[in-house]
């Protein structure tokens, strides 16, 4: 009995020691550049516990006081292992080297990393920047958004466009973040190119559903694009010279291991190419024609490491499109054009409060502005002058601040919480007129005045593991103050992942979302003149809920397969009333021109991806249905949304023949877009009008989007020839867009043809023709790194 009591007493005294735990924490970074490694894996082989790094490379893993064998791994890098006796809280900052074959300086992806069936998050895709750069694109311009269009559940707005339509949503329902700052217009050259310079980008993540609670403010997707931090070890550069633009990126230390800077610029030179052509065409004319036709991007980032616990980042982006024509002669001059662009900046402070708690505080600024300009002046022989100028301008401006906390109390829990506030200023569209003649001057402003709102949010979420079940559970609360109205929304989120035998994961998610700002745009064509407006007392916030379920597994040598089905219901989606747009009636309130209704989208997505080996790529397939319904459109009947497509298929293949030559191809197929075609016409008599007299014909009728364009398909190819020089790498890229010259429809043109009748006479009849604008387009570019 005494021996038993002694044994129990010994066990009781030993329990605190057995229960004692310590925390291993630190940062994972690229050994060559000092760049943080996002979502890198930290795994203890003995306890079978692990965690991942956050977006700043920080990790924390709490384990029992015992022997540990920690593996640090990241895709594309050689893994590192540390084995030791964990007796106290330990800091381990790990630098990982790229996985390099010794005989050739070629980076190969390591098979280390979290497998698709191990992630609790579903409906999320991270696209490596190197994979984005490999994809064949229009005119050889590497484009982040065009690569994302090749993923299942994502559609483009049309031929050559960079717009994203995700799971039945519209462009304003995508929250696009560059270093955590919203970008309101993501396109250059009327949507042909995006504003993101891939040379300055570190990683790209698209979330289509199952949204974690830390995200909010949009219904359809979250696109996170993070810029490189800047090399802390040595100076490097890369760039390209292409057919339509050139770019250059430089990064390096101001003070080694302490302060770094990155600057990146891109500019088109279409105006330089067209200038001599225009001059030659007008050399016999008395008119002097000048054009401005270009776009540019500029990125900059500064980071400073005070110590292991405090880091400061300052980043900025400035980009714009400039289209302007000026025609002058001895007596008259005319100028007109359209300019638009984004300006954003962010100041971030990282604070490692302790070895389990990490904080990031961010202050941001974002502005999008559009200007449409028309000017005319005349000089007469009597010395008098007349002038006229009109300037339509619109935009949105944000000032915002937020704080986010990462708390890792134990291996089975990753808790995130935080909040923030944004002040919005809207300029919904105004027309400035300035007219001068005969010593008189008329100057006025027509249109909406500025509007203001405040948006705030708080959230909490926990990424937890309970045996074979992983779950991300969270709650997002938001509020919106506009005028005398204050809207609130409480949005529960949950994502589940259960691992079956043979490493098959069953996944499910449910998320509700609310959106307080809206983009007024035409279904037929997206222009930079589209207007950003707030929810008001009359315009209710957009809301949605989405449920998804699927399965995922990794087969053989790293072939990932996922299958998902989803259903999304949207409330208070916004659209122009039939016949209304920003172009007419600027003196009227924009709220009188819009209507709100319901949206519904559902479908299934298949994604097969091979990440390793000489041949890599993916297959994506989407089967979907997408509808809208408004009381004041289409007689209140439900109709297919403009971008309702039954089938979307994309196949992307990259093959390395050797270390110097690689070939990439992308083939896409999509059901034709839904369009509205007028089905009858009638004459109208304008006699008695103050402006018109005579007869005209009005076309009308037809169900909304009841017809389909021809199905879309296209093949793009790209050949890369790389040579490793002594101090730099050079690459020639030869590409061809629409390789077999398929005439894909861009829009439908209503016309009239003379058609011979049975009696031999000819009768004029209406016809509709599909117009294609992008033929087969070859390209060549020269890329370099040093």
TrEMBL record:
- BP GO annotations: siderophore transmembrane transport
Question: Domain of life of the organism in this record?
Answer: Bacteria
Q: Name one GO cellular component term.
A: cell outer membrane
Signal sequence span is 1-19
Q: What is its main location?
A: membrane
Matching SUPFAM superfamilies: Carboxypeptidase regulatory domain-like, Porins
Provide this UniProt record's keywords sorted from A to Z: Cell outer membrane, Membrane, Signal, Transmembrane, Transmembrane beta strand, Transport
Q: What is this protein called?
A: TonB-dependent receptor plug domain-containing protein
Provenance organism: Phaeodactylibacter xiamenensis
């Amino acid at each position: 009995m005494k021996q038993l009591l002694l044994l129990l007493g010994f066990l009781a005294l030993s329990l605190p020691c057995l229960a004692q735990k310590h925390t291993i924490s630190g940062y994972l970074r690229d050994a060559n550049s000092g760049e943080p490694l996002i979502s890198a894996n930290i795994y203890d082989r003995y306890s079978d516990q692990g965690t991942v790094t956050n977006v700043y490379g920080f990790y924390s893993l709490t384990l029992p006081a015992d022997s540990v064998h920690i593996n640090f791994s990241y895709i594309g890098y050689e893994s590192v292992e540390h084995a030791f006796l964990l007796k106290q809280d330990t800091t381990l900052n790990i630098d990982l080297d790229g996985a390099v074959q010794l005989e050739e300086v070629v980076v190969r992806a390591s098979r280390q990393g979290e497998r698709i069936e191990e992630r609790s998050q579903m409906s999320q895709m991270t696209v490596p920047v190197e994979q984005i750069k490999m994809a064949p694109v229009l005119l050889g311009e590497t484009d982040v958004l065009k690569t994302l269009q090749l993923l299942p559940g994502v559609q483009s707005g049309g031929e050559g466009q960079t717009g994203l339509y995700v799971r039945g949503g519209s462009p304003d329902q995508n929250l696009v973040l560059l270093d955590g700052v919203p970008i309101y217009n993501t396109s250059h050259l009327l949507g042909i190119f995006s504003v993101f310079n891939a040379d300055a980008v570190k990683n790209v993540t698209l979330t289509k559903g199952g949204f974690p609670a830390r995200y909010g403010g949009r219904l359809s997707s979250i696109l996170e694009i993070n810029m490189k931090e800047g090399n802390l070890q040595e100076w490097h550069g890369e760039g390209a010279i292409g057919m339509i633009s050139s770019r250059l990126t430089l990064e390096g230390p101001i003070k080694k291991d302490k302060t770094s800077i990155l600057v990146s610029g891109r500019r088109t030179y279409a105006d330089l190419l067209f200038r001599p052509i225009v001059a030659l065409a007008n050399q016999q004319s008395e008119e002097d024609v000048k054009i401005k036709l270009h776009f540019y991007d500029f990125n900059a980032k500064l980071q400073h490491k005070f110590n292991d616990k405090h880091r400061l980042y300052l980043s900025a982006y400035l980009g714009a499109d400039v289209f302007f024509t000026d025609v002058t002669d001895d007596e008259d001059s005319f100028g007109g054009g359209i300019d638009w662009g984004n300006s954003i900046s962010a100041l971030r402070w990282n604070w490692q409060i302790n070895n389990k708690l990490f904080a990031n505080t961010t202050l941001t600024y974002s502005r999008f502005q559009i200007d449409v300009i028309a000017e005319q002046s005349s000089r007469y022989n009597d010395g008098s002058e007349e002038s006229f100028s009109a300037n339509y301008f619109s935009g949105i401006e944000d000032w915002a601040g937020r704080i986010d906390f990462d708390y890792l109390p134990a291996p089975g829990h990753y808790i995130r919480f935080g909040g923030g506030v944004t002040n919005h200023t809207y300029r919904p569209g105004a027309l400035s007129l300035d007219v001068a003649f005969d010593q008189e001057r008329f100057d006025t402003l027509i249109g909406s005045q500025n509007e203001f709102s405040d948006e705030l949010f708080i959230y909490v979420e926990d990424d937890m593991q309970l045996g074979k079940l992983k779950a991300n559970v969270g709650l997002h609360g938001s509020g919106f103050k506009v005028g005398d109205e204050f809207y609130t929304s409480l949005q529960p989120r949950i994502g589940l992942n259960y691992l079956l035998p043979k490493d098959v994961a069953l996944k499910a998610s449910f998320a509700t979302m609310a959106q307080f700002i809206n983009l007024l745009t035409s279904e037929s064509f997206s222009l930079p003149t589209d207007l950003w407006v707030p929810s008001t007392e009359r315009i209710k916030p957009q809301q949605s809920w989405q449920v998804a379920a699927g399965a995922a597994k990794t087969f053989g040598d790293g072939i990932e397969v996922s299958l998902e089905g989803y259903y999304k219901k949207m409330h208070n989606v916004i659209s122009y009333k039939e016949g209304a747009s920003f172009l007419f009636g600027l003196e009227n309130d924009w709220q009188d021109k819009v209507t709100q209704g319901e949206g519904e989208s559902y479908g299934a997505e298949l994604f097969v991806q091979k990440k390793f080996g000489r041949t890599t790529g993916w297959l994506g397939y989407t089967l979907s249905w997408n509808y809208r319904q408004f009381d004041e459109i289409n007689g209140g009947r439900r109709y297919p949304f403009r971008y309702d497509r039954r089938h979307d298929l994309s196949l992307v293949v990259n093959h390395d023949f050797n270390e110097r030559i690689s070939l990439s191809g992308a083939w896409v197929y999509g059901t034709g877009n839904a369009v509205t075609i007028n089905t009858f016409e009638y004459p109208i008599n304008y006699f008695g009008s103050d402006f018109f007299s005579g007869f005209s014909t009005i076309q009308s009728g037809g169900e909304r989007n009841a017809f389909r364009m021809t199905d879309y398909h296209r093949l793009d190819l790209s050949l890369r020839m790389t040579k490793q020089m002594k101090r730099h790498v050079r690459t020639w890229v030869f590409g061809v867009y629409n390789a077999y010259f398929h005439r894909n429809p861009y829009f439908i043109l209503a016309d009239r043809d003379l058609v011979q009748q049975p009696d031999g006479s000819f009768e004029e009849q209406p016809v509709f023709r599909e117009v294609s604008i992008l033929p087969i387009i070859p390209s060549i570019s020269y890329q370099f790194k040093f």
